[in-house]
Amino acid sequence: MSGHSKWSTIKRKKGAADAKRGKAFTKIIKEIMVAARFGGGDINSNPRLRTAVLAAKAENMPKDNIERAIKKGTGELEGVNYEELTYEGYGPGGVAMMLEVVTDNKNRTVADVRHTFSKYNGSLGENGCVSWMFEKKGLIVIEKSGVDEDRLIEVALDAGALDVKDSGKEFDVTTDPASFEEVKKAIEEAGFKLNYADVTMVAQSTVRLSGKEAEQMLKLMEGLEDSDDVTKVYGNFDIAEEEMERLSA
Question: Is residue 212 part of a domain?
């Protein structure tokens, strides 16, 4: 399982998403503004904006907040001018990491990111140092319990998925970014419950972590995601199921 998918599983168990609802609002609003800025304010013709708006609704964000963010992005209302950046670095155990950032002050953001990396035995690297190890794909994670694997594979592949893998307690469905929404819709309409679904960076290989390195890695992920400017964090790490249970307790 990819580090990002594994981290999402741990966050669900820890209840971190509910505890940081306000921070989630801030990040989603930024994403809506950037998506509207580059792709326009029509969710029907802007898939990225549509995904951001769906995320906002999932967090029960008020409709007025969503509409204001879209108008700020398109320039109909005055708003902050955000830029998108990608940072790369290394975590404990040599884990390759990529960060997606939306910020109005990159000097502040890079200083915060560098500090968080060093705090948890990681280091910020140069652009290009690890990006070759990741590939952008759609990732849909489905709870394994009670799922008819043959039916899931049939639905996913017929809708255009690239692969369906058994990752232990879940199934990972990967897609091309362009076919992500179509595959996700088909899987949902077939009645499967999604634990996670997003266009993400999938690592070509993973580093198995345990003990102190696994604990430091999770603290680093949490510390980076705690930043208002960091929208997504990826790492090519894996953690054994029993170790994950211990760390997420």
Answer: yes
